[in-house]
Every structure is written in structure tokens, then in C-alpha cells.
Amino acid sequence: MRKAPRLSRFNIASLALGLAFLYLPILILVIYSFNDSRLVTVWGGWSLRWYHEFFNDRAMIEAAWMSLRVAVSSATIATLLGTLAAVALSRGERFRGRTLFSGMLYAPLVMPEVITGLSLLLLFVALNAERGFWTVTIAHTTLTMCFVTVVVQSRLGSLDRSLEEAAMDLGCDPVRAFLSVTLPLIAPAIVAGWMLAFTLSLDDLVIASFTTGPGSATLPIRIYSEVRLGVKPEINAICTLAIALIAVVIVLASLASKLSSSRGESAAPL
Amino acid sequence: MNSRRIFARPARFAAIAPYVWMVLFFLVPFAFVLKISLSQTAIAQPPYEPVFDLTAGWDALTSAFAALSIDNFKLLISDDIYVFAYVRSLTVAIIATAALLLIGYPIAYGMARLPKRWQAVAMVLVIVPFWTSFLIRIYAWINILQHDGLLNQILLALHLVSQPVVWLSTDTAMYIGIVYSYLPFMILPLYATLAKMEPALEEAAADLGAPPWQAFWLVTFPLSLPGVGAGVLLCVIPIVGEFVIPDLLAGSNALMIGQTLWLEFFTNKDWPVASAAAIVLLVMLLVPLLLYERLQKQQLEQGR
After folding, report:
1. What pTM was computed for the model?
2. Do A41 and B148 touch (CB under 8 A)?
3. What chain B residue is nearest to A240 in terms of C-alpha separation?
């Protein structure tokens, strides 16, 4: 048995300070979203008036709706493609162009967004595509499927491959072995990948700015243009709602992965 | 072993759809960037001279090749604005990454020394802010740093300053924003290597008479270098091309390359120059990008 490492006072202090640094700004923002005063920094008592203001702001609501639609559709396509890519990379035989394939999938993870956005816009202009919902969705799918690939691939890498082999020794064909053995086991990673794709899409400003057309701004684009003009209490309320939405998604997804993992252990192989 | 091979064959077909998608929406667009960076600016919609027109036949194609020019790249080198922007981007990325390492390392180290049960909790706590929007996190800091914001109110109340300090539109604000946004990217790879390390190593050093800082510096730190490398690359590459944080938090007198590119594209509508700037940025990042890719591949494909 290995002894638990001792925590020094320095360790505790750096952890406490680090977490405070990460959470205080968000906490302050949430608190100020309930501030009744028009001046963002003067406390005028608790109130929901900025939420009320947001729900009456048609342009903001429209942008939020656009963002949600893009996030759901791009995350779904990205999860599908990303999972396929992860399976090919971690289970497939060597195939021609494999290096190029993995290179294309890892590069967007760190590629500056201005480059990705610019290059996709030039493609859409050259194709004469009408810019709006679909171009943003395609752009976000391209970015987020790479993240899904990494998440699912690392789960596949840690999986015991003898399970698949056992299924096939017992007479399953490869597709069925994948569907009934591998897929349930990597389901939590797929759910996590979808969530990651969803939030990344909801979050993105730069790529969406390049690839969207007039009249179809996403929420970050609207927020960004408001913030450039100065701080508005309404933005605090929108941000708090976005944080709440993400929190709900995280809780739901962790519940889903708990459910699926307990089911995956007990279910008899089909 | 045999069933592994049988499984591998259909798995290969899984690559087709994502492969086609990435070629179409990742590789081909780069060809367009390259092409437009070599064409002339035109006052038209779209604002560049078409370089290739495949319908016009071979002769047109060869003359189009002759018309390609590297003028845009010459402009980038000769114009101070761009040279400054590239230098500033690199400087900001290096300083910010150094700060991230200094702040992130003690946090990751503390996490790795927590009891196992608490490590998982700490990891979730570090990841959760990453899930909240980038823009929201920057906006949260604008709230705090503005003229009559919380920070100035606290400083005034404590009589540390006699009048409000200007935080917004300064490099300090920008560095705070960058460190805040990228901290999880630095902590997680560091934590991953530190958590795997055998604590007995440091204890052995202590038993042999090394004071704690020496045990750390001679044993722990060298062993954590792979994590340091991953964290540094994960931060430095995107920071060089960062747009939102400098745009909202830093002043407008010294622009980073991401901002220059944005300005050139959206305000000046000079797409060829913007494309050339993107190509140069990409070339600048090529070495760290390739390093990062190799690292990522090694990590993910250990299971193969």
C-alpha cells in the first residue's frame, strides 16, 4: 500500500487561492445579475429586472435561439463523425492517408480560431453558399468533431479489447460486436463528447463571426457587440442564464453516463 | 489476435465519412486561403481577383499562374504594423504562458497531493469553469476591472490607492484575462503527469537528506517535464492567435496579429492581405503545432 502523500501548507494555500481565482469572478457576475441598480457596480437590492429586460429583447432572444439550434445540430453531427473517426483511429488497420487523417483531426484543437474561421469563409464564398445557419453549423461541426474524437479515442484506448474479441469468438460479426459490446462501454465518452461539442459551439464567437451572414447573429456575436459598447446589466443576466444552462447540461450528462455505465455492466450481451 | 484483425477491417470504413468531411472543410479551405493570399486586392464582391477559373481552359490557367503575386507577403514584411503585431503576439504568448506555468504548477501539484477521493473533486472543480463561455469569463473580468468596478472599490475602501486605478484597456487586464481563461489548459496536463508520479521518489530524496525544495527541483520537476511541455504548447499556440481577450481587455494602441487580421478582413475588407497574414501566422505556429500533434498522438495511441 502506498502512503498518501502529505499535504503541505503551501499545497493547501495554492489550491485555495487557485480555486478562488477561478470561481470568484463568475460568482460576482451571477450576484450582480440580480442587482436592481442600473449602475452595474452600485448595489440596489435584489431584483429580476434584467432577466425581464432580456426576455423582452427580441434581437437577443433570436440570437439565443439561433445559437441553441446551431449548438444542438452541430454537436449531433460532430458526435457522429467524431465517434466514427475515433473508432477508425484506435481500431482500424493502417490505411492510406492515416497520418493526414489524424493530423487533420488534431490540428484544429489548437489552431487559432481566426485562421479556421477565415479559411472556412473563403470556402463558402467560393462556393457561393448563402451564409447563415448552415454555414455556422458546418464550421462548428468541423471544429468540435475533433474534440469528440479525442474524448472517444481516449476511452477506446483504455478499453479492454479482449471483450470485443470474446464477442467475436462467440460468433458475433464485427459490426454486431461493436454495437453490442463496444458501444455501450464507450457511451459515457460519447455523451461527454456531445456535451463538449455543444458548449464549444455555444461559446464560439470568432468562427461564427466569420461564417455567419447578415441577420443571423449568434448569441456570442450579439453579446460581443454589446460588451464593446460598455457594460450593461442585462448582459449579466444573459450570462447567468447561460451558466445555468451549462450546469443543467453537465448534471444531466453525468446522470446519463451513470445510468448507462451501470446498465452496461449488468446487461447480458445480446 | 485473429479476431482483432477481423474487427479492424470494418473499423477502417468508419474513417470514410469523417475523412471526407475534414478534407472538404479543413484541407480545401486552406487551399483557398493560400490561393487568395496570392491574388490581388480588388474593390468588388468578393474583394479579390479570381486566381483560377477552371472553365477557361489550360491557357487561362497558365496565365493565371503567371498573375500570382507575392506582393501581399512583401507588404507584410515591409509594413511595420504587421511586424509589430507578430512580435507583440509572440511576446504576449511567451509572457502569459510563463505566468500560467508559475500559477498553474503549484495548483496542479497541490491537486496531485490530495487524497485520491479529493483529487477527482478537485479535477471537476478545475474543469467546470472551462465549460462556461469564454466570453462570459472575460465579461466577468470587465465587471471587476472597470473604473468603478469591484477591484477599485476594494482598493479605495482599504485606502491602498487614493483614486481609482485604470485597469481596463491595459496590458495588465489582458494578462489577467489570458491567465484566467487558459488556466485549466495548463493545470490539467500538469496534474496528469504529477498524479502518476510515485510519491516514494520524493520521500526517498528526503530520506537521503534533501530539503523539500531540493527534492522537488531535482526529482519531481524533471519528471514532470512532459506535462510542462503539453501545458505550454496547449497555451502558447492559441494565445499567439488570440483575438477576443486583447480586443476586449487591452488597449488599442498595440494590436496582436489576430486583431490585425480581423481588422484587415472586416474593416478594411482586404481579404488577400488578411489571407497572407493568416498564412504567416500558420507558418509561425508550424513547429509548435507539429510538436503538439506528436504529443497528442503518442498519448492517444499508447493503447494500440
Report:
1. 0.84
2. yes
3. B136
